[in-house]
Structure formats: structure tokens, C-alpha cells
Amino acid sequence: MDTITNAYGSDSDTESTPTGVSSSAPTSTLSSSVSGPPGGPYLVNRSVNSAPFVNPALKTVMNRPGFIPPTSRELTTNVKAATLLAPIQGPEHPFRREMDSMGGTKLATGGYKEDAVMEKWNFHEQFHTFHAQGYARDDVAGGIIGNVHNYMRKEGLRDPAGPTAINAGRVTKPSGSTALEPVSRRKRKGVEEDEDLGEEEDGPWAPAKEEPVITQLEAGTLTEEQKRHRAELAERKAAKHRGYDEDEDLDRRDERKVAHLLPPRHDRDTVASEPTTQFHGKGESDYQGRSWVEPPGGLRPVETDHACYLPKRCVHRYTGHGKGVQAIEFFPGTGHLLLSASLDGTCKVWSVYDERQLRRTYSGHTAAVRCINFSPDGSRFLSGGFDRFLRLWDTETGQCISTITNRKVPYAAKFYPPNDNLFIFAASDNRLYTYDWSSGEMVQEYNHHLSAVNTVTFYDNNSRFASTSDDKKMLLWEWDISVPIKYIAEPGMHSMPAVTPSPAGDFVACQSLDNTIKIFGCRDRFKLLHKKVFKGHTIAGFACQPAFSPNNRYLASGDGEGKLHFWDFKNTRALAKYRAHDNGPCIGLVWHPVEASMVASCGWDGLIKLWE
């Protein structure tokens, strides 16, 4: 028993007394009770309080309202509503708006909502406007809610009669009043458009608004140039709202890949410019009554096999074109006149003998002239320009006989030698056309090329012709038959933008873009002569025209550097080279049909030179 007694209880000072324990502390976390038989062993039961100790002095501190920043988004303590609704403490920032200092929002304890029908974009617009500028538009009751001064400053309004009517933060414009007047537009740099409310009159699907019409008083203050400019703008605006045109749509389709390389297309209002001419000689006929177009006395065409010699020097320069000269051609048979076409849109005829002066100017193109061609008797000639018009001129009188267009750029035009009422021209739409100017109709169309057609060359006694194109092909055709009789397309071929037949009609010289001149034989069968290749010049992408001597002994050509080259046609050996033109290529070259050693050249420096 003593052992048990010592185990469950003792009289030592370290154990609690059976009657309980007293403490002088304010609160006690332990309480005990004794159970067991009297005088015998007993058990001590202790109860533990798990609540933490709280100092009563802290309750007063926690109930005191603390500082809450206006921009805070979270509350870490349970704050009373009176604290949240208390005014903002501290000095006011002089350059910060009220809404910015409040963080953009302010908590409200109560409120109500109104049912309204409005578009989503309009709601977001007013929402962001309110948080950014401090005001919004009330579409239900009308007027503006919030910072009225910002609204008036934004809209450029002012109140000359006094303060604006403000009712509980809402501003309205009295009906029939002019309290809010717009500030002069000159005083405001930015003029904003009226707000789009999504209605039928002002919404995105509303009809287009007409521009304000200039009054007669304002129109009277305009100068003549301003009136003309205003009329042009009105015409352009009216042209944009016209209906569908089939020809314009086809033009866009045909030139969709090369439109950036071509001049502007024609529309339904495009008309040719008025042709004009000017004679520069003393008189259009001499004392014997002979026209200035007739050859001098004693000058007759000669056979093509007369002796020819290489020219050695420049004997004359023709000046008069305002821009570069693109093409030249001697008068058929006699060569006493020289026809030239320029990038300034004019054609000129020059005398080769006597004083070698300008005789007549033909003006009828609004863009550069691309090609020219005399009729077999020289009484008429063709001119095709980048203004997409072909013109037929009377050489003697300068009258424009006919104007033709198919809305495409004519790159080459040639009279049909057996019948000069017909001519054929190559166009930028990959086709060739035969035109009868006496009837004014297109009589045939040739459509087998894949790119713009550059040249037309007759051969085989003018019963057939060859065409070359940017598609690196040469096609052979029978006259008036729209199906080609032969395709010439080899892997090593390049585009051939300039072609010249020999005077006897046995050969065709083709300027190839690989800096060579290739020769095709057309006696029995049309074929490439691989051994006759002329090299040594650099054309650099220019369509430099080659030329044969009248007896087929020499071949000449210009190049992209302005030089003039001569070769022996029999053995392809280079014979001579001269510096002919500056600041551009020597683009055109023709050999005189009568004079043994006379050659004419032209270039983009605006000069025409005679070599002899």
C-alpha cells in the first residue's frame, strides 16, 4: 500500500494538496479535483483551458478605426460601414482628378438598377468614359451624369448665359434653349465626328451622308484654278459611284499581274486627245507645185545588191524632241525623209538631203510613242503610244485619218504590204489584231501567246508573219488564219523584243536578251541558224533595233550603253564600234535604202544622228 500511496499521491511539496490549489494570477488555465476513498489512495483530475490568453487592454485598440488607402482592393480586417463611408483624409492633390485619387471606383451601400436597352459597345464606351473622364451619357433620362466640366471641355461647349443646370450630378440642356453653344471650329484643333448611336439614321448601316454644299457666297471667292480643281474632284467622285462596266472589269482581269508596269487603264469616259500638226518649212510645195513629200529630182530607188560601206563618222545631228527618241524609219524606197517617234508623245518628219531640217510635227498622243510604220508608198504612217491609242496619219497634210484603241498598249504595228487598208498590231493583252481602217472594224484576232507580244515581221513574200513575245516564244502564222503554223520555243531561248528582216527577205535578225543577235533563215523552212550568232554588245534589257545593210553584207545594232556595233554578216566577226549616244541606250538604228554608207541612229538622249 505504501508503494501505491507513493505512486498516486504523497505529502511532498512538489505535489498539489488534496484540498485544491489556490493561485493569485488573474486567470488560471488549470483546475483540479480529488477523488478516492478517505484515508486511502486518491486520484487527482486536472482540466485544461485551450483558449489563448487575451490581454483586455488590446480590445480598445482593435475597435479603433484604422487607416485604409483609397486605392486598396482588399480588406484584411472586418471594418465597419461607417469607416468605409468616411471622407478621404489628408490634403488634396492639386493635379490629380477625384476619380484617380479614389482608384476609379467608390463603394456604395445601396442603390437601384434601371432596365435599359443599349448595345454592348455603347455600354463599354460609356463605362470607360466615366472611369477615365468622370462623366457618362444617360440614354434613359437624357443628359450627362458626372463631371460636367470635362464633358463641356471635351465637346467644345460653353455656357454664355450662366452656369449650366445641374441636378444631383446630372446636366441637361433645356428644350428650345441655346445654353450649350459650340465653340468655333477654328479655335479647336481637333474636330470630332458625331457619336454613332447605332440608330438607322446614324448607325453603321445608315445611308452615306452627303458632304456640305459650298454656298454661292463661298464659291464666289474661289479663283479660276480653284474652281477648276473643285470641278475635277466632283467628276472623280461621281465616277466612283457609277455602275458596273464590262470592259473595265475585263481590263482589270487581263492586266492584274502587270498593271504596275503599264500606263493607266481606260475607263468609259476616256477619249483621245485632239490631234494637231505644224509645218516647219517655208512652204508645203515648191515653185513647180510639187509637194514637200515627193523625193528630189533624180533620186530613184536602187537595187538591194549595190555596194555598201561601213560609216566612219557622224555627219549631222537632229535636235528638236523634248525627250528621248524611241524609233526612227526612212521613207520607203528613196529615204529622202526620216520619221521619228519620241517619248514626248510627238512624231516628226525630217529631211535627209538639202538642209536636213525639221519639216512637220504630229502631236496626238498624251504619252510616249512606242512604234511607227510607213505605208508601202509612204503617204500614210501609223503611230502607237502608251496612251493606248493607235493613230493613222496623212504624211503630207498632217491630218489624223483614224484613231483606234482596244484599251490595250500597242507594242508594234505594221501595214499589210499587199493591201495598205489593213494593218496588224501587237498588244499588251497577249494578242495580235488585224484592223481595216477603211471600214473601222477588227477583222481578225490571233491569240496563242502567253505574254505581251512585242514584234510583228512579214516574210515569204508577205504571205506569212512571225511574232515574238515575252513568253520567250516565236510563233509563225499564215495571214488571216488565227492558228499558228509553227511554234519555236527552245530551252536556251530568251525573249526577243526587236526583230528586223533582211532586205532580200532571206533572213530575220532577232535581238535576244542574252546579249546576242540570233539569225533565222526563212528561205525554204523557217529555222534557227545556230552558227550565226552575233556577240560583243550589251543591251541590258533594252529593245535595241538591229539593221541590215541593203546588200546583206553588214549587220548593225545599238546597245544599252549608247554604242554602235557593226559585224560582218558572213562570218559574224565584229568590225567596228562607235560611241553614238550618251545618258541611255542607242535604241533605234536604220540603214539608208539608197546611200551606200549612211546609217541613222537614235537614243534616249533626244538626238538623231546621221553616220556616213
UniProtKB/TrEMBL annotation:
WD repeats lie at residues 318-360, 362-403, 446-478, 547-577. InterPro entries: PRPF17, WD40/YVTN_repeat-like_dom_sf, WD40_repeat_dom_sf, WD40_rpt. Pfam families: WD40. Residues 20-36 have a biased composition (Low complexity). Keywords: mRNA processing, mRNA splicing, Nucleus, Repeat, Spliceosome, WD repeat. Its main location: nucleus. Residues 224-237 have a biased composition (Basic and acidic residues). Residues 192-203 have a biased composition (Acidic residues). It is found in: Nucleus. It comes from the Eukaryota. Residues 1-38, 159-254, 267-290 are annotated as: Disordered. Gene3D superfamilies: YVTN repeat-like/Quinoprotein amine dehydrogenase (2.130.10.10). One of its GO terms (molecular function) is mRNA binding. One of its GO terms (cellular component) is catalytic step 2 spliceosome. Residues 1-19 have a biased composition (Polar residues). One of its GO terms (biological process) is mRNA splicing, via spliceosome. PANTHER family: PRE-MRNA-PROCESSING FACTOR 17. This is Pre-mRNA-processing factor 17.
